[in-house]
């Protein structure tokens, strides 16, 4: 599920694939804790889901949604090692919790049959990062951001 945690610069970005699950996901700030290892699901790669693997660092206000969020650290570095994200974007990797497993299964069942080519990286275009370093789902983006 994890590799790659980046999108190669030569990967074409098609129109976003609809995400019927994350925007409606009812997950609270308290579901996650500092130190948790999480993934932000972004697409498919070789018949599996892939996304950015992160560690939760500290509570943080998520300005784009006006709700409690989490400051995340990408331990592999990259262009931006720290971001802030809303809890509904996150899925546990460090423990097998029922809520995250249900969300993961729903996304797998919906997304994987659509993208079946081996070694093809598909970025569904669900997320962008604001100038403030905040991860925003396309459904949460406010006009002007």
Describe the structure in brief.
This protein has one helix at residues 98-111; strands at 37-45, 48-62, 67-73, 82-85, 90-92, 121-123, 127-129, 135-137. The chain is mainly beta and 145 residues long.
Shape: globular
Strand segment count: 8
Task: Note the gap between the termini.
Answer: 29 Å
Quickly count the helices: 1
* CA radius of gyration: 14 Å
Secondary structure: helix percent: under 10%
Largest sheet: 6 strands, antiparallel
Low-confidence stretches: 1-13
Mean pLDDT level? 86
Helix-strand pattern: EEEEEHEEE
Secondary structure class reads mainly beta
**In percent, how much strand structure appears in the residues?**
25-35%
Characterize the structure shown:
With 145 residues, this protein is mainly β. It is built from one helix and eight strands. It has one helix at 98-111, and strands at 37-45, 48-62, 67-73, 82-85, 90-92, 121-123, 127-129, 135-137. The strands form two sheets. Strands 1, 2, 3, 4, 5 and 6 form a six-stranded antiparallel β-sheet that branches. Strand 7 and strand 8 form a beta hairpin. The chain is globular. Mean pLDDT is 86; it is low at 1-13.
Describe how the helices and strands are arranged.
Layout: E1 37-45, E2 48-62, E3 67-73, E4 82-85, E5 90-92, H1 98-111, E6 121-123, E7 127-129, E8 135-137
Features:
1 helix, 8 strands, 10% helix, globular, mainly beta, 145 residues
